[in-house]
Amino acid sequence: MSYLVLARKWRPKKFAEVVGQQHVLRALINGLDQDRLHHAFLFAGTRGVGKTTLARIFAKSLNCEQGISSTPCGECNSCVEVDNGRFVDLIEVDAASRTKVDDTRELLDNVQYAPSRGRYKVYLIDEVHMLSTSSFNALLKTLEEPPPHVKFLFATTDPQKLPVTILSRCLQFNLRRLDIKQISDHLAFILQQENIDFEAEALNQIAFAADGSMRDALSLLDQAIAFSGGKVTTEIVSQMLGSVSQQQLVQLLEALAAKDAKSLLIYIDELASLGRDFVVVLDGLMTSLQRIATIQLIADTESLDQQDDAALQNLANVFSAETVQLLYQIALHGKRDMPYAADPRSGFEMTLLRMLSFQPQAVTFNAGQPPVKKSQANSESAPVSAAVSSSVEPAATYSPPSGSTVTHSTKAEPESAEPPPSAPAKLEVKEPPPVEPESHSIVVTNTSTEVQPKETAHSNSDDASQLLNLTTANWTALIAQLKLSAFARQLADHCAYLRSDKNKIYLSVASELQHLANDKSVAKLQAAVSKQLQFEVTLVFTETTDTENVPTLAAERAQQAAELQQNAVDAIHNDPVVEQIKNAFNARIIDTTIKPL
Ligand SMILES: [Zn+2]
User: Fold this and answer.
1) Is 566 among the domain residues?
2) CA 13 to ligand 1 center in whole angstroms
3) Which residue range is the domain that position 587 belongs to?
């Protein structure tokens, strides 16, 4: 018994079996069911996305002996003949091999004749852009006045090469490349039907290598089945493709996260002995980093691909977003420089060592040993990391899920993402302490400057003494605590405390900002201050021209902001890692882009 390759055996026979291309299917199905069919369709798309398949199902739908519908019976003579590629009224032409005008003429001469078996003649002209200009002209005449019994399906990988006169007479569809999930799901379905065991990751690798083409994926799967003689495993597929498994990539990334140079070199050695293509490995690393970056951005992990498994999610917690970007960039540069390296392995090794040395802070983790928490030991360097958020990640300890090695397999239970009970928390990121000492902060916690709300049932003399406690310093603190509307907030931020007398508080506003002290804003501010002090006060505003020495909240904040900015700039300029990066990439610091936290 001859073996039928999967691509032919599992070629969809109904529209419902076609994977992807829903937009094209909908147009064809609606057209067929409502009997409103265009006479010429143009399918643009790469190879192996289903052009011939669509044409065949289309031909069946039109010629099925049960009648025209989007669901041909599949059993009548016409349907069977189409399925077997023997239907005389489905004419498949490869334009790439028949570019001459004579070929086209010969083809089009026959267009006039009625179909010999069915209702319609269906012409599938593949690679239609390869036709010569005169062929196009011959074709155009037919397209202008098509015989009623003819349908044209044109397929092309390069629709831009088609004359507009042809394009304008076709209904054009772009066939999309299939995504990895569509392909791997379909492969899984076929293997289940064929009773062949498989690992999901193996199918993902095939899907990735197939680059959007189902036909390529199926022939790779054929190859893998022949190669494996039973079960399609990740190992077999990796060997076959020279590709690298997700688990191997995760190992590399975990060694990077742990700054574990020894393990890193061992893994590289393993990859070399398995004969992996190091450019492919770098590609894989970049894909993984891109997925990690996505996980970091999308907190809602439900919406993520199933394959973004526990290991990648864990790495997303360990690496800072900036580090992921940096590693990606280094990988990209490494790939570009690969041809100049002495050999691929050393190029790859240097790239990974560069990733290792540019990771700003040490994280202690050795495979097989309990992770050592280092966050406490690193606390003295933490203030720098707070200021230099753009390049330094917080200290973190890391341990992979499920013990020392990460297991990544199709059978991974959700629980495997959890660390074993004995292990320490799988991630501990130390919150960087604020750069500024507490005394500079705006929220008042220091009792010496705090304005205590007055207890109820105090006498008037107490109220007066309470007011006398107001100073320029605690006035701004009081103001900062108020909840105000935008205009009243402007007034509050820009007024300075002068003195208080009984229930009157005297404030000054710079003359150029006098307009802020309108009746409405003053009333609002007065109400807010009274509420905060639990004591009715009257605000009295006076004008001042001395804008330099007015201790307003706005001025205070501006000064704080300037100090913070200067601290951040200093921290960046004094940071050894930034210095390394500057030297390595011949980079310079743009001070205006530095932002304090
Ligand atoms: Zn039929």
Assistant:
1) yes
2) 11
3) 557-593
Transcribe 151-217 into DSSP letters.
EEEEEES-GGGS-HHHHTTSEEEEPPPPPHHHHHHHHHHHHHHTT--B-HHHHHHHHHHHTT-HHHH
The count of domains in the chain is 5
449 lies in some domain: no
**What CATH number corresponds to the domain at position 222?**
1.10.8.60
How far, in Å, from the CA of 148 to the mean position of ligand 1?
A: 21
DSSP 252-304: HHHHHHTT-HHHHHHHHHHHHHTT--HHHHHHHHHHHHHHHHHHHH---GGGS
What digits encode the pLDDT tens for the residues 103-114?
777 777 788 888
Q: What is the mean pLDDT of residues 283-302?
A: 82
379 in a structural domain: yes
59 and 169: one domain? yes
Q: How long is the chain?
A: 597
Structure tokens at 118: 């069915």
Q: What is the pLDDT of residue 308?
A: 54
Mean pLDDT value of segment 557-574:
85
C-alpha 247 to ligand 1 mean position (Å): 48
Are residues 32 and 153 located together in one domain of the fold? Answer: yes
CA distances from 548 to 350, 393, 411, 539 (A): 57, 40, 70, 22
User: How many angstroms is it from 44 CA to the middle of ligand 1?
Assistant: 28
Residues 235 and 275 reside in one and the same domain = no
Do 68 and 161 fall into the same domain? yes
Ligand 1 centroid, distance to 68 Cα (angstroms): 9
| Residue 108 CA to ligand 1 centre (angstroms) | 27
> Are residues 205 and 301 both part of a single domain?
no
Residue 260 lies in a domain: yes
CA–CA gap between residue 349 and residue 263 (Å, rounded): 12
CA 64 – ligand 1 centroid, Å: 4
More confident residue, 130 or 472: 130
**194 alpha carbon – ligand 1 mean position (Å):** 26
DSSP one-letter code for 68? S
| Contact present, 174 and 155 (Cβ < 8 Å) | no
According to DSSP, residue 502 is labeled T
- Domain shared by 217 and 123, yes or no: no
